[in-house]
TrEMBL record:
Domain ACT, chain residue ranges per copy: 194-271
Assigned keywords, A-Z: Amino-acid biosynthesis, Aromatic amino acid biosynthesis, Isomerase, Lyase, Phenylalanine biosynthesis
Coiled coil start-end: none
Species for this entry: Thermoanaerobacter kivui
Pathway: Amino-acid biosynthesis; L-phenylalanine biosynthesis; phenylpyruvate from prephenate: step 1/1
Gene behind this protein: pheA
UniProt catalytic activity: prephenate + H(+) = 3-phenylpyruvate + CO2 + H2O
Catalytic activity, EC: 4.2.1.51
Lineage, broadest ranks: Bacteria, Bacillati, Bacillota, Clostridia, Thermoanaerobacterales
Protein name: Prephenate dehydratase
PANTHER family reported for this sequence: PREPHENATE DEHYDRATASE P PROTEIN (PTHR21022), PREPHENATE DEHYDRATASE-RELATED (PTHR21022:SF19)
CDD domains: ACT_CM-PDT, PBP2_Sa-PDT_like
Amino acid sequence: MKIGYLGPKGTFSEEAVIKYTQGVENCEVVEFNTIPEVINCISNGLCVEAVIPIENSIEGSVNIAVDMLINDANGIMIKGEVIIPISHCLISDAPIEFKDVHCILSHQQAIAQCREYISKKFPNAEVKATDSTAQAVLGVKSKPGVVAIGPERAAVIYGMRIIDKDIQDVKENYTRFLVLSQKDGVVTGKDKTSIVFSVPNVPGSLYNALGVLANKKINMTKIESRPSRKKLGEYVFWVDIEGHREDEIVKSALEELKGRTDFLKVLGSYPKFK
């Protein structure tokens, strides 16, 4: 079985894949350069499953992943989740003084998670975004004055030097990853279900929709709005709830929600990460 992830080796996505596949036999991990490529690897038959970052405890959602699952990922469902701690390092190719740093490379999410550190330590440095933290680490090779923000594992893999550790602005830093496939997870008794929906643009419509969950005492663990891409001021709502879509109470709630929404899509049910 092939499992896609955001490469190259040394990314936090690879760490999530390693955790997800512990004890799994006959699996092969395949790296891709961008999140859209990772998601599309299922629909184009390159992989059976894929692991993508979806949200961070400091910076919130990975918008491109959220938007693709809402709008573009037809036939793809969420079958699992993985949560890992995130510790960022300042990495260079050779010993370097902070005063000599003129450029910092990293993924946009990592840059945002280290915003205060960068502002305080390198107020005059140029900051450039890369497709992944591992690509940032590779990008400092033989480039004096250029450093990367990325995982310790990436520094080890590519033979780079760690200049500083745990540089994220909030030390309790976690990223949640989703496991995607053509089918979602089986009922375990300790599940979550992700749905997206839109409501009529009239007063109380969102309240009425969420009231379905409240009346059935279904707990929400996440709610987020994203632009509908159709009209300014119109939004689609991503909601995670406790329970599996095959549970009777969740099944009845989803059926009732259909009558109170303009659009409803079940992204999948899956076991809660332990």
